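Reviewers of the previous submission asked for a worked example of the structure-prediction workflow described in the proposal, so we include one complete record here. The input consisted solely of the amino acid sequence. No template or homolog information was supplied to the procedure at any stage.
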Amino acid sequence: MSLDITVPVEDVSSLRVGNIVYITGLVVTMRDQATKRLIAFFQSNVKPPFNLYGIPVFHCGPVVRRIDGGWRVEALGPTTSMRMEDLLESFLEVSGVKIVIGKGGFSEKSTDVFKRFKAVYCSPPGGASALLSKSVRRVSEAYWLDLGLPEAVWILEVYRLGPMVVTIDSHGANIYSMVREEALKRVPKILGNI
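From that input alone, the workflow returned the following structure tokens.
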């Protein structure tokens, strides 16, 4: 099933593992350093300069270029989300984010975190950064450029960003775990044929 999602997103309970989604509206790119800084803001009771509530966060370091006083996104490839796994629970708790986008998934322990915070994880196809960048209509804002362009926070206005597969849903299903379990079931048969 293919679904179009318009931001802001407050309820993702209708999304299930295997759904194909496209997102229209604002999307924020964040990686390790920006995620740590955001959590530190909240832990210090300091309001960050932007609000993420209801906005999908894309684990991505976009390739951007300065054009006529603004920015243009040249490529929009996902970053491996596992790098942010230790930050996931704190991040979802303080941000109000319901959709996280990235590649590679999270371990089984994070499945429960997504379920508890009623959030989902979506993965675009590999090698599609040029395609994904075509969905960007404009760079709305950029924050924390002192972290470097890939680590900065980019608020992007997108139209039908996708396709992306829901790979962890808010009900406790994790496609990575399902694939791993199925593969392990096949190992004895494969090894028996050697």
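The longest helix spans residues 175-192. We consider this example representative of the routine output the project will generate in years two and three.
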